[in-house]
Amino acid sequence: MNELTILAESFEKIKNYLQTNNDQTTPVVKFRTPAELAEVIDFGVKNDGISEHEFLGLLDKYLEFSVKTGNKQFLNQLYSGFNFPAFIGEVFSVLANTSMYTYEVAPVATRIETEMIRLMNSYAGYKEGDGIFVSGGSNANLIAMFSARNRIFPEGRFYGYDRNLKLSAFVNEQAHYSFETAANVLGIGAKNVIKVKSDVNGSMIPEELEREILSSISRGEKPFFVAATCATTLLGAYDPIDEMASICAKYDIWLHADGSFGGSLILSDKHKHLMKGIEKTDSFAWNPHKLMNIPLVCSAILVKKRGTLQHNITDINTDYIFHDIDEIEDLGKKSIQCGRKVDAVKLWFAWKYYGLDGYRKRIDNLIEMATYAENQVKLHPQLELLVARQSFAVCFRYVPSQETDLNKFNLELRESLRKKGKSIVNYGYTGGKLAIRLITANGELAQSDMDLFFDNLLSEAHRLERKYMKAYVEA
Ligand SMILES: Cc1ncc(COP(=O)(O)O)c(C=O)c1O
Q1: How far apart are CA 175 and CA 232, in angstroms?
Q2: % the chain with pLDDT above 90
Q3: What is the three-state SS of 275-341?
Q4: Is 389 a pocket residue for ligand 1 (Cβ < 6 Å)?
Q5: Domain that holds residue 53
Q6: What's the structural domain count of the chain?
Q7: Which of 178, 234, 299 to mutate to test the pocket of ligand 1 (most atoms within 8 A of CB)?
Q8: 73, 241, 298, 438: which could form a disulfide with 394 (CB 3.0–4.6 Å)?
C-alpha cells in the first residue's frame, strides 16, 4: 500500500464518518473509561514505525472512540456541528501549511485575514478598527486586558507593572474564568478581578458596576478594565453594554466585550439588540469556532483603535523575519505569537460559501431552536426551567414524581444519557441547583433534533425513576 492508497482510503473513511452525523442511530460517543481506551488503542510509540494497514486501523479507532461533535445530539458544548466549507478550508490550509507572520510566506492568507477582520469590524461598528486572529477566546480576553494595561501604562511594556499602582478589573460574577487567568499572566493578580453582581437572569447590574468602581477607587486602586460578557457560559446572558459604556466613559476605563460564546449574535438583525452599544466598546472577542461552527480554533480579537495591537508588542528589531519589502504590513507585528495558524482561511471559505444572509439565517435558527427547546421544557409537567432563556442556552432539570435529591437525580440522568451515547448535554449549578444546560450551537439543528433530545431525556428519566422507586421499596 502506498501513500496515495492511504489517501483514497482516508477519503472513504471521511465520507462514512460524515454520514453518521445525520444518522440518529449512531451513538454520539462510544463511551470508554481511560483504562478501557488503553485496551482498545495502543497509545505507545515504538522504535519501528507501523504498516500502512495499521495506520489505517488507527484512523478508524480514532474516529470510533472520539465524541461525534457534528452529531445533532451533541448539545453539550458552546461549539458543535459540522461546517462543510470550513472543513474543506481547514484541510486546504493545512495542505499549504504556512504561518501568519509575514506576507512573504502567507500572501493569500494575509489578504484573507485582513478582509475577515475588516468584515467583522463592520459588524462591530469599529470604523477605524483593527484585529487579529488568536488561539481562542481566553487569549482574546488576555490581549484585551493587555491592551487596556498598555493604554494607561505604556512603559509597563519595558519596565514591568508597578504593583503599587494596584490595577483593578471588573467582570460579571458569572464571567468566564479566563479573565482571572489573564490578570494572573499580566501580573495584575486574579484577586484584583472584581466580580460584579448580576440580576436573576445573569446580566451584570450596571449600578453595581459603578458602586464597585467607586469602592475600588476609595481603596486607592486604579480601575482600568471592564468586561461585558456577551452570553455568559452557563446561562447565555448578555450584559448591558450601552449602560456599561457610559460608566466606563465617566471613569475613563477600557470596556471590553467578551463575545467568545455569543458574539456571533451580532450577525442577526433580529437579535443583535442584545449587544446594543457594541460600537462603544474598546475591544471585542469573537469566536467563530462557536456559533459559526468553524472547526476549532477560530477566534479573533477586534480593537476599536488601529495601532493598539502594534503598540502592545515590545519594539521589534528582528530583521531576520520582518523585511518590510512587500507593500503590506506583516500581520505578525501585531501578534504576541510568532508562528500562527491561518485560522481566518477556513472562516473565509465558510462565509463565502454561505454568504452574509446564509450566516444571518443560521444564527436566527439557533435562537429559534433554543426558543423551541425552552417551550418544550415549559410544556412538560416534569421539566422545570431554572432560569428564563436568555439566548442559546436552556437551563432546566427533571423533577421526578417521588421526592428525591434533585441534584443527584439530574446528574445521574445527564451521565447516563452521555455514557449511553444517546445525547450529550452539559450541566452547571445555578443558586445551588443542578441545571442541565442544553446549547443550540449547531446551525443545522431542526425541531426534530430537539424532539429526539427530549424523547431520549424523558425515556432515560423514566427509567431512572423506576430504578429509584425500586430501591425505595426494597429499602
Ligand atoms: C463567555 C466565554 N468567554 C471566554 C471563553 C473562552 O473561549 P475559548 O474556549 O475559545 O478559550 C468561553 C468559553 O466557553 C466563554 O463561554
Answers
A1: 6
A2: 89
A3: HCCHHHCCEEEECCCCCCCCCCCCEEEEECCCCHHHHHCCCCCCCCCCCCCCCCCCHHHHCCCCCCC
A4: no
A5: 3-68
A6: 2
A7: 178
A8: 438
Q: Domain check: are 170 and 31 in the same one?
A: no
Give yes or no for residue 206 CB within 6 A of ligand 1. Answer: no
Amino acid at the residue 251: Y
Give alpha helix (H) positions in 380-405: none
Pocket of ligand 1 contains residue 233 by CB under 6 Å: yes
Say if 344 falls within a structural domain. yes
Same domain, 246 and 334: yes
Last residue of a domain, one of 351, 368, 402: 351
Rg (CA), the chain: 24
> Could you report the per-residue pLDDT of 207-227, keeping only the tens digit for each?
999 999 999 999 999 999 999
Pairing state of beta strands 393-398 and 383-385? antiparallel
Q: What cell numbers appear for 390 in the block?
A: 436568555
Burial bucket for residue 55 (CB in 10 Å: 0-12, 13-18, 19+): middle
**Atom of ligand 1 at shortest range from CA of 296:** 10
Give yes or no for residue 260 CB within 6 A of ligand 1. yes
In this structure, are 213 and 287 located in the same domain? yes
Tell me the pLDDT band of 97, cut-offs 50, 70 and 90: very high
Q: What CATH number is given to the structural domain containing 175? A: 3.40.640.10
Nearest-atom index, ligand 1, CA of 229: 1
Q: Is 255 helix (H, G, I), strand (E, B) or coil?
A: strand
Q: Whose CA is nearest to atom 8 of ligand 1?
A: 137
Note the pLDDT tens digit of each residue in 34-55: 999 999 999 999 999 999 999 9
Q: Is the pLDDT of residue 475 over 70?
A: yes
Is 391 close to ligand 1, i.e. is its CB under 6 Å away?
A: no
Q: Are residues 32 and 177 in the same domain?
A: no
Give the bridge partners for 258, in sequence order: 229, 285
Handedness of CA 427, 263, 174, 183 (dihedral sign): positive
- Residue 444 CA to ligand 1 center (angstroms) comes to 22
Residue 1 pLDDT level (bands cut at 50, 70, 90): low
Q: Which atom of ligand 1 is nearest to the CA of 262?
A: 1
Same domain? 45 vs 137 = no
260 and 311 share a domain? yes
Q: Tell me the average pLDDT of the chain.
A: 95
* pLDDT tens digit sequence for 100-153: 999 999 999 999 999 999 999 999 999 999 999 999 999 999 999 999 999 999
